[in-house]
Amino acid sequence: MVFEFDRKKAKPSDPNGLPKILPINKDDLTLFSQPKKETDGTDGRHAKVTSTWLGHACFLVQVEGVNILFDPVFSERCSPSQLAGPKRITPPPCKLDELPRVDIVVISHNHYDHLDLTTIKNLQKDHQPYFYVPLGNKAWFDSIGIKDKVTECDWWDSHDLSFHDDKTGVKVVCTPCQHFTGRSLTDRYKTLWASWVIETIPKNVSEKPIKVFFGGDTGYRYVPNGRDEDDMPHCPAFKEIGERIGPFDFSMIPIGAYSPRWFMSPIHCSPEDAVRVHEDIKSKRSVGMHWGTWVLTDEDVTEPPRRLEAAMKKRGHDPKIFDVMQIGETLTVDVQEQGKL
């Protein structure tokens, strides 16, 4: 059976259903780019996760003054060439050089909608960040002249970093997911794919670490044509992540590019799958990603948020704890307040 892409199905049923494009809040991004100063009545911690959606799977996440950029793609097309291939239906909310300092760049895998040559080169030129990539991807960075500060990770590898004169420490953990890789017809499965965890390293034993999960690009189960999804076995990796590292204060989970299910289910979550991932990893607050930026499959591109809300209600959850953001929107999660719930 051959998959034939149906662009008519993918066309937005309501153009107003696409994410809005908001200007980034530079004041907030600057504020959270530095650790909180120790003054009377504070412990020198923000105790917050600040996340800005930059489209598709790209987020700027800020924890305790450390800026982490996930899967950055600022090019017009996610393709080997900017002359052809999927073109953005929604633009980035800013130019790359309008972002604050970038300390860490995390890459989930090497597909063009997650790893972009021009974006990576510009980040290296302007920020010289630490790059974290799954196994097999360092060679690509070497080939474009980025040889330093690139760490290649297998699943469950963990690396500690310190910033701001060792006042802020973060742990970067490479975790499993269900996907595949390849940038050409000849290199499929030659490199690893991954989800990722960012965890703060508290200076005091009385403090709890802030934990952030990034789902990257993943499926949850395989659904053969005509079969009931609920009868199908699912990937056990997310429950293992939840047991070993969770619960998570904030999570970014893919919800789009899932149709037709018989073809896409092994590699891309449906909104219903995403809710199960949210449950498995024990996430307290999640947002959807991997939708509303490029037309990659044949579901209505405005559909994922509606199905996400319905799936949350069906599973007995408050839809407000796993919803979607606007492109350029900044969401701040107060971890201390979350702990009181």
From TrEMBL:
<feature type="binding site">
    <location>
        <position position="268"/>
    </location>
    <ligand>
        <name>an N-acyl-1,2-diacyl-sn-glycero-3-phosphoethanolamine</name>
    </ligand>
</feature>
<dbReference type="InterPro" id="IPR001279">
    <property type="entry name" value="Metallo-B-lactamas"/>
</dbReference>
<dbReference type="GO" id="GO:0070291">
    <property type="term" value="P:N-acylethanolamine metabolic process"/>
</dbReference>
<dbReference type="GO" id="GO:0005737">
    <property type="term" value="C:cytoplasm"/>
</dbReference>
<protein>
    <submittedName>
        <fullName>N-acyl-phosphatidylethanolamine-hydrolysing phospholipase D</fullName>
    </submittedName>
</protein>
<dbReference type="GO" id="GO:0008270">
    <property type="term" value="F:zinc ion binding"/>
</dbReference>
<dbReference type="Pfam" id="PF12706">
    <property type="entry name" value="Lactamase_B_2"/>
</dbReference>
<dbReference type="InterPro" id="IPR024884">
    <property type="entry name" value="NAPE-PLD"/>
</dbReference>
<dbReference type="GO" id="GO:0070290">
    <property type="term" value="F:N-acylphosphatidylethanolamine-specific phospholipase D activity"/>
</dbReference>
<feature type="binding site">
    <location>
        <position position="112"/>
    </location>
    <ligand>
        <name>an N-acyl-1,2-diacyl-sn-glycero-3-phosphoethanolamine</name>
    </ligand>
</feature>
<dbReference type="InterPro" id="IPR036866">
    <property type="entry name" value="RibonucZ/Hydroxyglut_hydro"/>
</dbReference>
<feature type="domain" description="Metallo-beta-lactamase">
    <location>
        <begin position="67"/>
        <end position="291"/>
    </location>
</feature>
<dbReference type="GO" id="GO:0070292">
    <property type="term" value="P:N-acylphosphatidylethanolamine metabolic process"/>
</dbReference>
